[in-house]
Amino acid sequence: MKIRCLTNLDLDYNEIWPEELDILPPVGSCIASGNEGVNGSLLRLKVCSITIRRIPDNASAILTGDFKKGEWYAEIELHLPTNFVNISEFELWYEKHKGRISIEEYQRRHKIISNSEDYKCVLRASHINYMPIRNNPESKFRKTICTQLKECNAKVINNPQAVGETKSGSKIFPEPGISDIIVIHRYIGIIFLEFKAASGKLSPVQRNFLLEVNDKAPYSGFVAQEPGLLYYFDGRSNMEVDFFPFDTGKDLIHRIRELKTSG
């Protein structure tokens, strides 16, 4: 069926959207633009509504475009996917996606956005809770797995900002979206690993980061959830269902190796 994708987001004119599909996508799914970003990132927008329409018999050529008069088509409205908290965050990411700002500038401006009251209100409404890193279950679980990974000759690089509370008592939280650690091992290469407590959830920023990582290099971004669940986030899998159990850091390496080989 012929389709026409519409959005009220401020996008560049050269974004490429499908013009015909055999099966209409369900509401809530995402459609990716055919125009990649400068670093291979993909612009995904969520399908918000689908309206089946007919080109009027008296429509002008400007309105019909490639459609024939009297022809039926699906009008698909696209908007922000769930991995963005608000339009400001999306517009900032889009600037980076198009190469108009550097990674450093993106991170600097994202800190300003994430510290705004509107941003925090949305996070609270989404039941996303940023816990202090010291003495929480996620921190203990991470420490145990990292120790076991090092025993397997893996190089473990911590996010330099994921240090919890300083000696002076000030709170330091991870750089927005960047995974807790980077693991380097001869069996699995370079892996970004995000740790979560048993009841923890990915924030929209973390979801966006993992999507970008796995777009550029499939099976390079994972979530390790207490007590021992490995989850590969690619925007399609379900964190509550699509997981792979593991017991130790050594088992974690083998699980990731199996996934990278099978994928």
Mean pLDDT: 78
Whole-number count of domains: 3
Strand content: 15-25%
Query: How would you sum up the major sheet?
Result: 6 strands, mixed
How many β-strand runs? Answer: 12
What is the rounded distance between the termini?
Answer: 31 Å
SS content category: alpha+beta
Rg (C-alpha, Å): 21 Å
Query: How are the strands of the largest sheet arranged?
Result: 5-8-9-10-11-12
Shape: elongated
Low-confidence stretches: 127-135, 160-175
What is the tally of helical segments? 7
* Annotated CATH topology of the largest domain: Trna Endonuclease, Chain: A, domain 1
CATH architecture of the largest domain: 3-Layer(aba) Sandwich
Helix content: 25-40%
At the first level of CATH, what is the class of the largest domain?
Answer: Alpha Beta
SSE pattern:
EEEHEHHHHEEEEEHEEEH
Task: Tell me what you see in this structure.
The protein is α+β, with helices and mostly antiparallel strands. The protein has three domains: 3-79, no CATH class; 87-125, no CATH class; 137-262, Trna Endonuclease, Chain: A, domain 1 (3-Layer(aba) Sandwich). Helices cover 30% and strands 23% of the residues. The chain contains seven helices and twelve strands. The chain has helices spanning 61-64, 87-97, 103-114, 117-125, 137-151, 204-216, 249-262; strands at 3-7, 30-32, 44-54, 72-79, 155-158, 164-165, 171-172, 181-185, 189-196, 221-225, 229-232, 243-245. The strands form three sheets. A six-stranded mixed sheet has the order 5-8-9-10-11-12, with helices on both faces. Helix 2 packs antiparallel against helix 3 (103-114) and helix 5 (137-151) crosses helix 7. The longest helix is centred in the middle third of the chain and has 15 residues, at 137-151. It is elongated, with a radius of gyration of 21 Å. 25% of the residues are buried. The model is unreliable at 127-135 and 160-175 (pLDDT under 50).
